Amino acid sequence: MKNGNGTRLHINEVATRDGFQMESRFIPTDDKVALIDRLGGLGYAKIEVTSFTSAKAIPALRDGEEVMHRIARRPGVVYTALVPNVRGAERALESRIDEFNIVMSVSETHNLSNLRMTREQSFAQLADVVALAKQAGVPVNVSLSCVFGCPMEGEVPVPSVLGWIERFAALGVQGVTLCDTTGMAYPIQVQALCERVIAAWPALDWTAHFHNTRGMGLANTVAAVEAGIRRLDMSLGGIGGCPYAPGATGNVATEDVVHMLQCMGYETAMDLDGLIAAAAELALLVAHELPSQVSRSGHRLTRHAPPAHRRN
Questions:
Q1: What mean pLDDT comes out for the span 81-100?
Q2: What's the CATH code of the domain at 195?
Q3: Rounded distance between C-alpha atoms, residue 142 and residue 131, angstroms
Q4: Is residue 307 assigned to a domain?
Q5: Active-site annotation holds for 179
Q6: Residue 28 is part of which domain span?
Q7: How many independent structural domains does the chain possess?
Q8: Which position among 146, 179, 242, 263 bears the catalytic label?
């Protein structure tokens, strides 16, 4: 394990999309806007604000346009959203989106379950979105689900993963996110795949996206960073998950990952105390305990008063 020696990492927040879409309680629009505005001042490189999927499909994010129009845009922060199809792309453009995040799975079974389309159907639809983005001058990132394993198929062959990356690279996307959608990744697998794709497509912006389903999210993050990944998705409080992985917990928690990376000497530009305070606010919004650790315990040098000793 290496010392970060000030290496700059770019932190992307996904709680307001990936996290909120999994919550049973609708988060009021005013609260979403206030939280995103608060997060915008904490040092993020990117915030995934919402999804331009139909309100019927994801009712928790039915206020996507209003949220995008009302948030305060911080200089230097990319405000992105999930864009599933051309209609969603048109809505996103009307909302002055900074980037399209398009999504499909490299697993046929997962793609059919999650998107109700074959992979080829998804690719054809997303190719139209990329073409529209090019016309509008908006960059595109593609998030590939299940690259480290599928809960229904098991291992996903690496050549299949590389084949889908090649096809999207040929369309002209600017970045690719390698998603451990259901928390099946393990460190040596992560390091091997990340090293391979960075070497094959060095011009692409690479992002890693981990879930903590089996408690390996932090270890996988270190493996990805040591392989050369410089952009990381994470979710405040560790909220999120996947409906197709029974028992799955959420994404790796932003405050936990940032705390670890800062301890290791990496430069994240993040305000850790601000994250801990924002997580406390988030817990009130979702009305349940958060799975993150640092939001409860504080950073490693948090001081506590010694216990009062009593004489018997």
A1: 97
A2: 3.20.20.70
A3: 13
A4: no
A5: no
A6: 10-297
A7: 1
A8: 242
